[in-house]
Amino acid sequence: xxxxxxxxxxxxxxxxxxxxxxxxxxxxxxxxxxxxxxxxxxxxxxxxxxxxxxxxxxxxxxxxxxxxxxxxxxxxxxxxxxxxxxxxxxxxxxxxxxxxxxxxxxxxxxxxxxxxxxxxxxxxxxxxxxxxxxxxxxxxxxxxxxxxxxxxxxxxxxxxxxxxxxxxxxxxxxxxxxxxxxxxxxxxxxxxxxxxxxxxxxxxxxxxxxxxxxxxxxxxxxxxxxxxxxxxxxxxxxxxxxxxxxxxxxxxxxxxxxxxxxxxxxxxxxxxxxxx
Length: 276
Ligand code: SF4
Ligand code: FES
Hints:
Elements: E1 3-13, E2 22-31, H1 36-46, E3 66-69, E4 72-75, E5 88-92, E6 99-101, E7 104-105, H2 108-116, H3 128-131, E8 135-138, H4 141-145, H5 158-162, H6 164-168, H7 174-185, H8 215-219, H9 226-241, E9 252-255
Parallel strand pairs: 1-5
Antiparallel strand pairs: 1-2, 3-4, 3-5, 6-7, 8-9
Bound molecules: iron/sulfur cluster and FE2/S2 (inorganic) cluster.
């Protein structure tokens, strides 16, 4: 494909051996549709094989390639260079994380905080159903809509990088984990509630530390809007604390006989393409 123009990548590089970060410049011949990630691969293959960055799916679903370009949080694999409208790209790792090397942040705190809020469905009435499922829980489309948007989080970590509270208080659970706490708190299949995720209202690390700056929502490449989730979570805690919360609606349950033969009008499975 024909080159459209040269773009200079100014990459903030860091190696733990030398200690101090430094800017390094590389010229990248950009073709139509080329992504920032492809630009980084071009540098690695043509200028400096020691450049380190992280990527996996290359289609905006794994969250590995989140970074900052010209001050904005992006997924490198889904951001086209020409759409950034700049001849110079300042490429930096995410803020608020320890940098392992070059553009690779250590996301351990993100995943630890995520685990802290118990980001899964809690059941008290039928815990055995988890180990040995006998059917499915029922939920209306309207009930699903209550939290659907928040399930799109790919755990890229950009929201924590953008959050000014996280930068001053590393104990703050942050937008990603608290969004997931809200997502489960309003899921009708979940029988736990705020009390089961008591960390969310902790005075030091909980949701009331959020000042509603909204930088997390601006940074999120998946349109999750964690800023809104945190305000809704505050409201849930307030109503719960003052006894104003109506009892949580419970999802229905539909038992399935997994051994029953399929109904005669069930679609046939596709033919096997590999023998055996
Ligand atoms: S809420 Fe958005 S920015 Fe934060 S981790 Fe999830 S996808 Fe990334
Ligand atoms: S490589 Fe997976 S989101 Fe970019």
